[in-house]
């Protein structure tokens, strides 16, 4: 009898704690930032441009860009400088199906910037990210797990 009660309690616990992987509101998680450094004195076209990669899930798959119809965007903010940018997601209508899962990479070149401290310096940049789908559901807000080191010689 005692073991039956324990098994039932554990079953209820694990069932109640189970999170649905695909929800109406998009869910995002941090994957990586590569490369993790950039120099202020080297033109961006001559160096590797840092790129932030996130993973996204959405129950309806209503993400992307459909010309003349609707748009979903990804929003990114540099937490050091306060620079913000919103980017239109590409047309993924052929891949965006129910229970959509994918990865999105964002070019961070327009969001790089330094503090006002004297030179030389190395600033540690973190980025806040979220997305909105066609229904304007806002995903969870995440902060990049790895920094970008912005070097000003």
Task: Explain the overall architecture.
With 153 residues, the chain is mainly β. It has one domain: Immunoglobulins (Immunoglobulin-like). Helices cover 10% and strands 39% of the residues. The chain contains one helix and twelve strands, in the order αββββββββββββ. The protein has one helix spanning 2-17; strands at 27-34, 37-39, 51-58, 65-66, 70-71, 73-78, 84-88, 100-107, 121-125, 127-132, 142-143, 148-152. A hairpin with a 3-residue loop joins strand 4 and strand 5 (70-71).
Short description:
With 153 residues, the protein is mainly beta.
Could you report the average pLDDT, rounded to the nearest whole number?
84
Q: List the secondary-structure elements in sequence, H or E.
A: HEEEEEEEEEEEE
Distance between the termini: 72 Å
Number of domains as seen in the coordinates: 1
Per the CATH scheme, the topology name is Immunoglobulin-like
Give a count of the beta strands, DSSP E runs of length 2 or more: 12
* Radius of gyration, in angstroms, nearest whole number: 20 Å
Supply the helix-strand structural class: mainly beta
> Outline, from the CA principal axes?
elongated
Helix content: 10-25%
β-strand amount: 35-45%
> What summary fits the major beta sheet?
4 strands, antiparallel
Shape-level CATH architecture: Sandwich
Number of helices: 1
- Give, in spatial order, the strands making up the sheet with the most strands: 7-6-10-11
